[in-house]
């Protein structure tokens, strides 16, 4: 069992590092081929934080662990809001000034309700997976069109996303890191899933629970690091944007992989418990961020409440084991 935990930790580390290198190489290569910085920032770079979730969900689905893949996507969204934002707000209250975020927050709630409807029959079909993926394509296309047409290009979220696009990277170097990422991403995710399954069996955890807990928390570590780094640099919209963007990608880009690769019956707890928690957390985020007091920020008290809610949710899940 110690070996499985070591492999799990190394797998997470390799997954996060290889995802970063993959995004770096892909973004630099796209920039070198003349793709506008705005488009690279809103696609390749913005998707970077969800790359670990995508690879883990794909690997889990290929291993016939669709519940783990679904749990990873749903659990990551819950973790992003309750744990990541909770801890980040405790560091420093988060101000909300980006019109992009204000526009996207209601969208997160809307697609969360759509996700609940999809899983209400406890089955994830190929058609439903494709529908979510089409929604992702429409979302990215719409975001790019709106951003290109925007008269005010000073939106902090867009500016920060574009600032993360690497400049002046030689094409050979970009290709090198792209290939390294492409090789290590599937390998690290394979070992991560294998060790997680071993740990789940040892402790009597279901495929869904292992996805909602250990894997979801592990794949959300990049969001935690990015969000804390953002608030420490007074870039609140970058911190919050990482969460909002990641949650949209998790539902529309990560979750579909499970249905497309391995359509199957899903644990009833997903619709009756976990997606409802995800919806509640999303609604709480909107209320805290776009409140009617005029301050439009998430304060430390609210951050503490989010963190307490996360601990309560995790405790409840493990209390149901066995």
From TrEMBL:
One GO term of the biological process aspect: intracellular calcium ion homeostasis
UniProt-annotated location(s): Membrane
Keywords assigned: Membrane, Transmembrane, Transmembrane helix
Domain of life of the native organism: Bacteria
Cellular component GO terms held in the UniProt record: plasma membrane
Coiled-coil stretches: none
Membrane-spanning segments: 74-94, 130-148, 175-197, 209-232, 244-263, 275-292, 304-321
GO molecular function, one term: calcium channel activity
Membrane topology: Multi-pass membrane protein
Every Sodium/calcium exchanger membrane region domain range: 4-141, 174-313
NCBIfam families linked to this entry: calcium/sodium antiporter
Protein name, entry field: Calcium/sodium antiporter
Record organism: Pseudoalteromonas fuliginea
Organism ancestry: Bacteria, Pseudomonadati, Pseudomonadota, Gammaproteobacteria, Alteromonadales
